[in-house]
Amino acid sequence: MTLNIARTLLLMVDVQNDFCPGGALAVQDGDGVIAPLNRLAAVCASLGGRVAATQDWHPAGHISFASSHSDKKPGDIIEQGQILWPDHCVQGTRGAAFHEELNLNPVNLIIRKGFRPGLDSYSAFFENDHSTSTGLEGGIKQMNIETVIMGGLATDYCVLYSAMDSRRLGFKTIVVSDAVRGVDYPPGSVEKAMAQMQDAGIIFADSAQLLKELC
Ligand code: VGL
Ligand code: ZN
Questions:
Q1: What is the CATH number of the domain that holds 47?
Q2: Could you say which of 64, 69, 88, 136 has the lowest number of CB atoms within 10 Å?
Q3: What is the pLDDT of residue 80?
């Protein structure tokens, strides 16, 4: 694997309090992604690469919240395959804030998604209508990025959708295997997501291996 660091972006997906232990939609060991991401971000930025972070950023009453629908509970599925979640990452709340241990100093671009009341967004690139851009594609094309390295939360939702879009848009796409954690709802969805990413030509590498490549 040869990486041109000046054309490499590290994308840190949704490392927010609500997806970490104690949060409203806690992913098991979710804060375990922070240490490897911090190491990668520091090295990437210091060598001339770019670092972006995403935030799930929902208005109160968002369509993806079970509480926004009568007679629905988290885990239920409504029209167009929309899974309902507990209220999470509500704009401006502590749950929506980045985890305090995530080092934001190397981050030069922050993308917020899922901010429309009636539209969910898992991917860092497109909202779930698959056509509303978050701006990330244009931004990183202007930065001349060719490789996207990503980690964060959750493996089977926002990381999966972001990695698939990244690959489809033509970026060499690497998922940091020790810097992702999954919701695994419905059960088996992490395994399914991993297989789907592998089939699409997405590369998996652990952070130690990547740090060696970068330095
Ligand atoms: C996510 C479920 C709902 C994620 C966001 O960041 O993976 N999952 N909203
Ligand atoms: Zn969400």
A1: 3.40.50.850
A2: 69
A3: 79
